[in-house]
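WARN no homologs supplied; continuing
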Amino acid sequence: MTGTADSGRMPSGGRGARVVEAALTSEVPGPVVGSGYQGDRIDTSVAHPARRYNYWLGGKDNFQADRDSGDAMAARFPTIRLSAVENRRFLRRTVRHLAGEAGIRQFLDIGTGIPTAANTHEVAQSVDPRARVAYVDNDPIVLAHARALLTSSPEGATAYLDADLRDPERILDHPELRRTLDLSEPVALMLVAVLHFVPDDDDPYAIVARLLAALPAGSYLVASHATHDHLPAHLTAEAKAAARGGPHGLINLRGRDEFARFFDGLALVEPGICSVAEWRAADEPGPRPSVADVSMYGGVARTP
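OK structure emitted
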Protein backbone atom coordinates (compact mmCIF):
# COMPACT_ATOMS: atom_id res chain seq x y z
CA MET A 1 0.00 0.00 0.00
CA THR A 2 1.67 2.07 -0.23
CA GLY A 3 11.43 7.88 -5.06
CA THR A 4 14.25 11.30 -4.39
CA ALA A 5 13.23 14.93 -5.24
CA ASP A 6 12.42 13.32 -5.32
CA SER A 7 11.77 9.95 -5.75
CA GLY A 8 8.36 9.36 -4.19
CA ARG A 9 7.28 7.11 -1.35
CA MET A 10 9.36 4.12 -2.18
CA PRO A 11 12.62 3.97 -4.12
CA SER A 12 15.85 3.08 -2.40
CA GLY A 13 19.45 3.68 -3.26
CA GLY A 14 22.22 1.37 -4.42
CA ARG A 15 21.69 -1.23 -1.70
CA GLY A 16 18.17 -1.89 -2.99
CA ALA A 17 19.08 -4.79 -5.26
CA ARG A 18 20.87 -6.61 -2.44
CA VAL A 19 17.98 -6.14 -0.07
CA VAL A 20 15.43 -7.35 -2.60
CA GLU A 21 17.57 -10.38 -3.43
CA ALA A 22 17.71 -11.16 0.27
CA ALA A 23 13.95 -10.76 0.51
CA LEU A 24 13.36 -13.18 -2.33
CA THR A 25 15.53 -15.79 -0.63
CA SER A 26 13.93 -15.11 2.77
CA GLU A 27 17.27 -13.85 4.08
CA VAL A 28 16.26 -10.52 5.55
CA PRO A 29 19.48 -8.64 6.41
CA GLY A 30 19.79 -7.75 10.05
CA PRO A 31 17.11 -7.55 12.74
CA VAL A 32 13.79 -6.03 11.73
CA VAL A 33 10.80 -5.00 13.75
CA GLY A 34 7.56 -6.75 12.88
CA SER A 35 7.68 -10.51 12.54
CA GLY A 36 5.50 -12.46 10.18
CA TYR A 37 7.77 -12.03 7.17
CA GLN A 38 7.26 -14.71 4.54
CA GLY A 39 9.49 -14.87 1.46
CA ASP A 40 6.65 -16.30 -0.61
CA ARG A 41 4.52 -13.19 0.02
CA ILE A 42 6.45 -11.53 -2.82
CA ASP A 43 4.79 -12.37 -6.14
CA THR A 44 6.97 -10.88 -8.85
CA SER A 45 4.48 -11.81 -11.57
CA VAL A 46 1.81 -9.40 -10.26
CA ALA A 47 2.25 -5.62 -10.14
CA HIS A 48 2.37 -4.15 -6.64
CA PRO A 49 1.53 -0.47 -5.94
CA ALA A 50 4.72 0.17 -3.96
CA ARG A 51 7.00 -1.36 -6.57
CA ARG A 52 5.12 0.34 -9.43
CA TYR A 53 5.54 3.68 -7.67
CA ASN A 54 9.19 2.83 -7.22
CA TYR A 55 9.51 2.35 -10.98
CA TRP A 56 7.78 5.63 -11.83
CA LEU A 57 10.28 7.45 -9.67
CA GLY A 58 13.43 5.85 -10.98
CA GLY A 59 13.92 3.26 -8.26
CA LYS A 60 15.44 -0.20 -8.70
CA ASP A 61 13.16 -2.26 -6.44
CA ASN A 62 10.64 -3.36 -9.05
CA PHE A 63 10.02 -6.20 -11.48
CA GLN A 64 8.79 -6.57 -15.05
CA ALA A 65 5.13 -6.79 -14.00
CA ASP A 66 5.49 -3.52 -12.10
CA ARG A 67 7.16 -1.82 -15.06
CA ASP A 68 4.55 -3.09 -17.52
CA SER A 69 1.73 -1.89 -15.28
CA GLY A 70 3.46 1.43 -14.68
CA ASP A 71 3.96 2.01 -18.40
CA ALA A 72 0.33 1.15 -19.16
CA MET A 73 -0.93 3.58 -16.54
CA ALA A 74 1.48 6.29 -17.67
CA ALA A 75 0.18 5.86 -21.22
CA ARG A 76 -3.30 6.79 -19.96
CA PHE A 77 -2.09 9.49 -17.54
CA PRO A 78 1.24 10.81 -18.91
CA THR A 79 2.00 13.03 -15.91
CA ILE A 80 1.67 10.27 -13.33
CA ARG A 81 5.40 10.36 -12.56
CA LEU A 82 5.13 14.09 -11.91
CA SER A 83 2.22 13.41 -9.57
CA ALA A 84 4.35 10.98 -7.57
CA VAL A 85 7.20 13.49 -7.29
CA GLU A 86 4.86 16.23 -6.09
CA ASN A 87 3.32 13.88 -3.56
CA ARG A 88 6.76 13.24 -2.10
CA ARG A 89 7.48 16.94 -1.88
CA PHE A 90 4.14 17.42 -0.13
CA LEU A 91 5.14 14.85 2.49
CA ARG A 92 8.46 16.59 3.05
CA ARG A 93 6.84 20.02 3.48
CA THR A 94 4.13 18.78 5.84
CA VAL A 95 6.59 16.95 8.07
CA ARG A 96 8.85 20.00 8.20
CA HIS A 97 5.87 22.19 9.12
CA LEU A 98 4.63 19.86 11.84
CA ALA A 99 8.04 19.23 13.37
CA GLY A 100 8.87 22.94 13.20
CA GLU A 101 5.96 25.35 13.52
CA ALA A 102 3.53 22.89 15.15
CA GLY A 103 6.08 21.33 17.51
CA ILE A 104 5.06 17.73 16.79
CA ARG A 105 7.63 15.16 17.89
CA GLN A 106 5.79 11.92 17.07
CA PHE A 107 4.73 10.54 13.68
CA LEU A 108 2.72 7.47 12.73
CA ASP A 109 3.40 6.93 9.01
CA ILE A 110 1.11 4.28 7.49
CA GLY A 111 1.78 3.04 3.98
CA THR A 112 5.36 4.22 4.12
CA GLY A 113 6.66 2.34 1.10
CA ILE A 114 10.27 1.43 0.32
CA PRO A 115 12.65 3.88 2.02
CA THR A 116 14.42 6.60 0.10
CA ALA A 117 16.08 9.92 0.85
CA ALA A 118 14.11 12.32 3.03
CA ASN A 119 12.06 9.70 4.85
CA THR A 120 9.64 11.00 7.45
CA HIS A 121 12.04 10.43 10.34
CA GLU A 122 14.92 12.10 8.49
CA VAL A 123 12.90 15.23 7.78
CA ALA A 124 11.47 15.37 11.30
CA GLN A 125 14.80 14.69 13.01
CA SER A 126 16.53 17.33 10.89
CA VAL A 127 14.21 19.76 12.68
CA ASP A 128 14.35 18.10 16.08
CA PRO A 129 16.59 15.05 16.67
CA ARG A 130 14.21 13.88 19.41
CA ALA A 131 11.44 13.08 16.90
CA ARG A 132 10.04 9.54 17.05
CA VAL A 133 8.50 7.76 14.06
CA ALA A 134 6.59 4.50 13.71
CA TYR A 135 6.32 3.25 10.13
CA VAL A 136 3.60 0.83 9.01
CA ASP A 137 3.37 -1.13 5.76
CA ASN A 138 2.15 -4.54 4.60
CA ASP A 139 4.52 -5.07 1.67
CA PRO A 140 7.24 -7.70 2.34
CA ILE A 141 9.77 -5.77 0.24
CA VAL A 142 9.27 -2.82 2.57
CA LEU A 143 9.85 -5.20 5.47
CA ALA A 144 13.10 -6.28 3.84
CA HIS A 145 14.13 -2.62 3.83
CA ALA A 146 13.10 -2.04 7.45
CA ARG A 147 16.70 -1.95 8.61
CA ALA A 148 17.23 1.18 6.52
CA LEU A 149 14.09 2.73 7.97
CA LEU A 150 15.25 2.04 11.51
CA THR A 151 18.29 4.31 11.34
CA SER A 152 17.45 7.05 13.81
CA SER A 153 19.24 9.89 15.52
CA PRO A 154 20.52 8.88 18.97
CA GLU A 155 17.99 11.21 20.62
CA GLY A 156 14.98 9.95 18.66
CA ALA A 157 13.57 6.58 17.66
CA THR A 158 12.05 4.74 14.72
CA ALA A 159 10.21 1.45 14.43
CA TYR A 160 8.63 -0.58 11.64
CA LEU A 161 5.30 -2.41 11.98
CA ASP A 162 4.30 -5.12 9.52
CA ALA A 163 0.58 -4.33 9.44
CA ASP A 164 -2.27 -3.21 7.20
CA LEU A 165 -4.11 0.11 7.28
CA ARG A 166 -7.36 -1.84 7.06
CA ASP A 167 -6.63 -3.40 10.46
CA PRO A 168 -6.29 -0.35 12.74
CA GLU A 169 -6.55 -2.41 15.92
CA ARG A 170 -3.45 -4.41 15.01
CA ILE A 171 -1.59 -1.16 14.45
CA LEU A 172 -2.76 0.50 17.65
CA ASP A 173 -2.15 -2.60 19.80
CA HIS A 174 1.24 -3.39 18.31
CA PRO A 175 3.88 -3.49 21.08
CA GLU A 176 6.44 -1.69 18.91
CA LEU A 177 4.04 1.19 18.41
CA ARG A 178 3.56 1.46 22.15
CA ARG A 179 7.31 1.31 22.75
CA THR A 180 8.05 3.98 20.17
CA LEU A 181 5.22 6.49 20.55
CA ASP A 182 3.58 7.94 23.64
CA LEU A 183 -0.10 8.07 22.74
CA SER A 184 -0.77 10.50 25.57
CA GLU A 185 1.17 13.12 23.59
CA PRO A 186 0.22 14.54 20.16
CA VAL A 187 0.98 12.40 17.11
CA ALA A 188 0.93 13.22 13.41
CA LEU A 189 -0.96 10.49 11.54
CA MET A 190 0.52 10.33 8.02
CA LEU A 191 -1.72 8.77 5.36
CA VAL A 192 0.09 9.90 2.26
CA ALA A 193 -0.96 8.34 -1.07
CA VAL A 194 -2.46 5.28 0.61
CA LEU A 195 -6.19 5.93 1.10
CA HIS A 196 -6.97 5.51 -2.60
CA PHE A 197 -6.03 1.83 -2.20
CA VAL A 198 -8.80 1.32 0.37
CA PRO A 199 -12.17 0.57 -1.26
CA ASP A 200 -15.45 1.97 -0.01
CA ASP A 201 -16.48 -1.53 1.11
CA ASP A 202 -13.70 -1.40 3.72
CA ASP A 203 -15.07 1.93 5.03
CA PRO A 204 -11.90 4.05 4.92
CA TYR A 205 -13.65 6.86 6.81
CA ALA A 206 -14.25 4.59 9.79
CA ILE A 207 -10.64 3.41 9.66
CA VAL A 208 -9.29 6.96 9.78
CA ALA A 209 -11.75 7.92 12.52
CA ARG A 210 -10.65 4.92 14.61
CA LEU A 211 -6.98 5.83 14.28
CA LEU A 212 -7.62 9.47 15.16
CA ALA A 213 -9.77 8.46 18.15
CA ALA A 214 -6.73 6.75 19.65
CA LEU A 215 -4.66 9.94 19.47
CA PRO A 216 -4.84 12.79 21.97
CA ALA A 217 -6.09 16.32 21.35
CA GLY A 218 -3.65 18.39 19.37
CA SER A 219 -2.69 15.54 17.07
CA TYR A 220 -2.69 15.97 13.29
CA LEU A 221 -3.89 14.17 10.20
CA VAL A 222 -1.82 14.49 7.03
CA ALA A 223 -3.36 12.88 3.95
CA SER A 224 -3.04 12.93 0.19
CA HIS A 225 -5.30 11.20 -2.30
CA ALA A 226 -5.41 10.72 -6.07
CA THR A 227 -8.50 12.21 -7.71
CA HIS A 228 -10.46 11.93 -10.94
CA ASP A 229 -11.73 15.53 -10.68
CA HIS A 230 -9.33 16.90 -13.30
CA LEU A 231 -9.42 14.01 -15.76
CA PRO A 232 -11.26 14.10 -19.11
CA ALA A 233 -14.58 12.27 -19.17
CA HIS A 234 -13.33 9.03 -20.73
CA LEU A 235 -10.48 8.72 -18.21
CA THR A 236 -12.84 9.55 -15.35
CA ALA A 237 -14.99 6.60 -16.39
CA GLU A 238 -11.91 4.35 -16.44
CA ALA A 239 -10.82 5.64 -13.03
CA LYS A 240 -14.20 4.92 -11.49
CA ALA A 241 -14.16 1.42 -13.00
CA ALA A 242 -10.76 0.82 -11.35
CA ALA A 243 -12.50 1.12 -7.97
CA ARG A 244 -13.94 -2.31 -8.75
CA GLY A 245 -10.54 -3.75 -9.63
CA GLY A 246 -8.73 -4.21 -12.90
CA PRO A 247 -5.41 -5.11 -14.51
CA HIS A 248 -3.54 -2.70 -12.24
CA GLY A 249 -5.31 -3.66 -9.03
CA LEU A 250 -7.93 -1.76 -7.12
CA ILE A 251 -7.52 2.03 -7.13
CA ASN A 252 -10.33 4.11 -5.69
CA LEU A 253 -9.87 7.69 -6.90
CA ARG A 254 -12.16 10.12 -5.07
CA GLY A 255 -13.43 13.63 -5.64
CA ARG A 256 -12.66 16.65 -3.48
CA ASP A 257 -15.81 16.33 -1.36
CA GLU A 258 -15.10 12.66 -0.74
CA PHE A 259 -11.52 13.45 0.28
CA ALA A 260 -12.67 16.31 2.51
CA ARG A 261 -14.79 13.86 4.53
CA PHE A 262 -11.60 12.42 6.04
CA PHE A 263 -11.10 15.77 7.78
CA ASP A 264 -14.62 16.13 9.21
CA GLY A 265 -14.48 17.62 12.71
CA LEU A 266 -10.84 18.67 12.37
CA ALA A 267 -9.31 22.14 12.04
CA LEU A 268 -7.66 22.41 8.64
CA VAL A 269 -4.26 24.06 8.47
CA GLU A 270 -3.94 26.78 5.83
CA PRO A 271 -4.25 26.62 2.87
CA GLY A 272 -6.76 23.85 3.55
CA ILE A 273 -7.52 21.13 1.03
CA CYS A 274 -5.76 21.76 -2.27
CA SER A 275 -3.49 20.13 -4.80
CA VAL A 276 -0.40 18.60 -3.20
CA ALA A 277 1.57 20.76 -5.64
CA GLU A 278 0.11 23.92 -4.05
CA TRP A 279 0.24 23.13 -0.33
CA ARG A 280 2.76 25.68 1.07
CA ALA A 281 4.87 25.28 -2.05
CA ALA A 282 6.14 28.86 -2.38
CA ASP A 283 9.75 27.75 -1.91
CA GLU A 284 9.62 24.89 -4.42
CA PRO A 285 11.55 25.42 -7.67
CA GLY A 286 9.58 26.53 -10.71
CA PRO A 287 7.90 26.19 -12.99
CA ARG A 288 5.22 24.62 -10.84
CA PRO A 289 2.98 21.92 -12.36
CA SER A 290 -0.71 22.42 -12.95
CA VAL A 291 -3.39 21.05 -10.65
CA ALA A 292 -4.67 18.89 -13.52
CA ASP A 293 -1.24 17.38 -14.20
CA VAL A 294 -0.82 16.33 -10.58
CA SER A 295 -4.44 15.26 -9.92
CA MET A 296 -3.87 14.67 -6.23
CA TYR A 297 -5.37 16.44 -3.23
CA GLY A 298 -3.61 16.99 0.06
CA GLY A 299 -4.47 18.41 3.44
CA VAL A 300 -3.28 18.79 7.02
CA ALA A 301 -5.62 19.20 9.98
CA ARG A 302 -5.46 19.35 13.78
CA THR A 303 -7.65 17.30 16.09
CA PRO A 304 -9.73 19.25 18.65
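Residues 73 and 80 are 8 Å apart (CA to CA).
OK
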